[in-house]
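In response to reviewer comment 3 from the previous cycle, which asked for concrete evidence that the modeling workflow produces usable outputs, we include below a single protein chain processed end to end. The sequence was submitted unchanged, and the resulting structure tokens are shown without manual editing.
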Amino acid sequence: MGLVIIFAAITILAAIGAFRSLKEKNFLAAFWGTAAFFVFGWFVVMTAIYHGIPTGTH
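The workflow returned the following structure tokens.
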């Protein structure tokens, strides 16, 4: 479940990067940032739905 936490952090950073690159009118970086946001975000959401939110304990 630690991988899900790392992917959630990547999702947040991808959203921030996509927004910043849109402000700078760097559309290629905005595309890849948005694509990473949706791919990693989808993985995090589906894992949370099917396996629950990681609690940090066994």
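The radius of gyration is 13 Å. We consider this sufficient to address the reviewer's concern, and the full set will be provided in the supplementary archive.
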